[in-house]
Write a structure and sequence with these properties.
Structural class: alpha/beta
GO molecular function: hydrolase activity; metal ion binding; nuclease activity
Main location: nucleus
Organism: Aldrovandia affinis
Number of strands: 7
Number of helices: 14
Distance between the termini: 140 Å
Largest sheet: 5 strands, mixed
Strand content: 5-15%
Strand order of the largest sheet: 3-2-1-6-7
Oligomer: single chain
InterPro entries: HARBI1-like (IPR045249), HARBI1_dom (IPR027806)
Order of helices and strands: HHHHHHHHEEEHHEEEEHHHH
Helix content: 40-55%
Radius of gyration: 32 Å
Pfam families: DDE_Tnp_4
């Protein structure tokens, strides 16, 4: 007993030292964790500040590329950049470069979209001006830059930029499609056929049809459907243009793996043309036979009595067939040029579009309508814009339907045009 009582003070001292040691270790762990968290917060703050500075620099680095006297509008704060610089100091070249249209066309567009885009001020905040909402959307369509860059440039939130793009695209489709992208009437068909014959030397033709693949980010579902034959993700646009390169029929939203022939056969254009929608009430005579109006396509489409394409070059061609191929390829270049101008003016169709998949078809359709608006109003097209689309990172896919998909009766129509062009060639030689 006496020995145990003598050991008690030693036991208490040992327990005290062990508890103190554990407490010191725990305290050191807590301090170490606090220091790590402090450093993480400091690093996050540093990166956030660096990111904000980079966004401001990007916004302020937008410079006027005109040859006339440079104005120091790049240092203006983004909150009044729109009111004091764009609205008061922008020259005609600036409007074309930044918004892809003239100032007059811009305000004409705002007036047409006013019924859908006007917002009322509230007690909590002032509504974003109509012109600024349209400008935000056009900047996005023309440059395809990120939302945060546009946000810093116009002094609005990123969610506001996203909403402006969506609202303006839907308003363009809703209000301007009936005015600028409609199937021609019978009189307009006749005028279109006369224009095509005068401009491109191809009679009875009212348009050229082709497809354009628009690059997108990977969708959340059914990703495999959007891989096209060239090996990249896309949404397909099918368009028909007249002799001036203006769209009068557009079908978009099909996944990139869909063949051009399938898109055409599932479109309203196929249904209307198959039922005689391209034929005038009073039959037109051509080479002694009654013939309706027709479209020009490429090897991706099946030969029809209202849709002609070149003879395949897989074998030897007769002189009359070569003459036909030359005339058709020359006339069909109008839609190739139209797609080039469309992508050059609205580069969201040339670069990969990172918008949500549900908005992409509406955005593509809105760009086609805006293309027609600019063409009809005679806005200048800057040839330098073509440099951006001449070097395509993603080549367009090319499809070809087998000869079995062609309509045998359509060969008679194609043969008539071979005879017509052969006669013209002989007359020129004589």
């Amino acid at each position: 007993m006496a020995g145990e009582e003598a050991l008690q003070p030693l036991m208490f001292l040992l327990m005290y030292m062990l508890m103190k040691r554990r407490k010191d270790i725990n305290s050191a762990d807590v301090q170490r964790r606090n220091e790590i968290q402090r450093r993480i917060r400091h690093r996050q703050y540093f990166f956030q500040r660096q990111r904000r500075m980079l966004m401001i620099l990007i916004a302020r680095s937008t410079r006027c590329t005109c040859s006339y006297r440079t104005r120091a509008w790049t240092n203006i704060e983004s909150t009044d950049w729109w009111e004091r610089v764009v609205m008061k100091e922008f020259q005609p070249r600036d409007w074309l470069e930044k918004f892809r249209m003239s100032k007059d066309t811009f305000f004409f567009l705002c007036g047409k979209l006013k019924p859908r885009l006007t917002r009322q001020d509230t007690h909590f905040r002032l509504a974003l001006p109509l012109e600024k909402r349209v400008a935000v959307a056009l900047w996005r369509l023309a440059t395809n830059v990120e939302y945060r860059t546009i946000s810093a440039l116009f002094g609005v939130g990123r969610s506001t930029v996203c909403k402006c793009v969506r609202d303006v695209c839907h308003a363009i489709v809703s209000l301007l499609k009936p005015l600028y992208l409609q199937r021609p009437s019978e009189q307009e068909m006749e005028d279109a056929a006369r224009l095509f014959n005068t401009r491109w030397g191809f009679p009875h033709c009212v348009g050229a049809v082709d497809s354009l693949h628009v690059a997108i980010i990977a969708p959340s579902s059914n990703t495999a459907d959007y891989w096209n034959s060239a090996g990249w993700l896309s949404v397909v646009l099918q368009g028909v243009v007249n002799g001036l390169g203006q769209f009068w029929d557009v079908c978009t939203g099909f996944p990139g793996s869909t063949e051009d022939a399938s898109i055409l056969q599932n479109s309203t254009l196929w249904a209307a043309a198959s039922e005689g929608g391209l034929s005038p009430r009073a039959p037109r005579s051509f080479m002694g036979q009654s013939l309706g109006y027709l479209l020009l396509g490429d090897a991706a489409y099946p030969l029809q009595s209202w849709l002609l394409k070149c003879y395949p070059d897989s074998g030897p061609l007769t002189p009359r067939q070569r003459a036909f191929n030359y005339r058709l390829s020359r006339a069909r270049s109008v839609i190739e040029n139209a797609f080039l101008r469309l992508k050059a003016r609205w580069q969201c169709l040339h670069k990969r579009n990172d918008c949500s998949l549900d908005l992409v078809p509406t955005m593509v359709l809105a760009c086609c309508i805006l293309h027609n608006v600019c063409e009809v109003h005679g806005d200048t097209f800057v040839e330098e814009w073509l440099e951006a689309v001449s070097q395509a990172d993603c080549p367009q896919p090319s499809d070809a339907v087998p000869p079995s998909a062609d309509d045998p009766e359509a060969e008679e129509v194609r043969s008539l045009f071979c005879d017509y062009f052969q006669q013209q060639l002989q007359q020129q030689q004589d």
